[in-house]
Design goal:
This protein is an alpha+beta fold and 185 residues long. The protein is 23% helix and 33% strand. It is built from four helices and eight strands; from the N terminus they run βαββββαββαβα. Strands 1, 2, 3, 4, 5, 6, 7 and 8 form an eight-stranded antiparallel β-sheet that branches.
């Protein structure tokens, strides 16, 4: 059934980047804080950088939980499920950090992602993977993938660059637990 791996090898990397959706989970240090789990559509927005390093393109969202939790403690798990083909779940536990759009290293990392120039791109999340495991996935339903929703990109394009930055200032400064999210834009 389940097993752990020392590194992300070629076949596993291919499987990870081929999945149309993945999930990000983070948590604050406080036991009173709220845990966060976010689904992410994978439109070539996930990349394997090395045998124990991955990254994903972080789009503007209504909250800032992942970035706030990573700023506070770095803990993160990325989970993939096979919704077609053989059953499988893969979890990548690690330490993450956010590279915001205005950071000097953003442009170099952006080369990993065809859509990195999109108006709504907020940051790139880097994860140094400490534990790689899979499990059976027998309980995950078989589902047919139709397409990615265009709504998020359309919304960001309507707002434009300055509108997105205004949104970050209004909605992405603090987490729901009042942790620091994005710095003032």
């Amino acid at each position: 059934m389940g097993k752990t791996f020392q590194q992300i090898d070629g076949p596993l990397a291919e499987w990870l980047v081929a999945q149309p959706v993945f999930f990000i989970s983070t948590a604050p240090l406080s036991h009173e804080g709220l845990l966060n789990c976010s689904p992410k559509g994978n439109r070539k927005e996930f990349a394997v950088r090395g045998p124990q390093s991955v990254a994903y393109l972080d789009q503007t969202g209504s909250g800032i939980e992942t970035i706030a939790h990573l700023r506070e403690n770095g803990r993160i798990v990325v989970m993939f499920c096979a919704f077609s083909g053989p059953p499988r779940i893969v979890r990548l536990h690690g330490v993450g950090r956010s590279v915001v759009r205005d950071a000097p290293e953003f442009d170099t990392l952006a080369e990993l992602f065809p859509g990195a120039s999109g108006v709504g791109v907020r940051s790139i999340i880097l994860v140094e993977v400490e534990r790689i495991s899979d499990s059976c996935g027998f309980g995950v339903p078989l589902m047919n993938f139709e397409d990615h929703r265009p709504t998020m990109e359309q919304w960001a394009n309507r707002k434009g660059v300055s509108g997105i930055r205004d949104y970050w200032s209004e909605k992405n400064q603090r987490s729901i637990d009042d942790l620091m999210g994005l710095d003032s834009q």
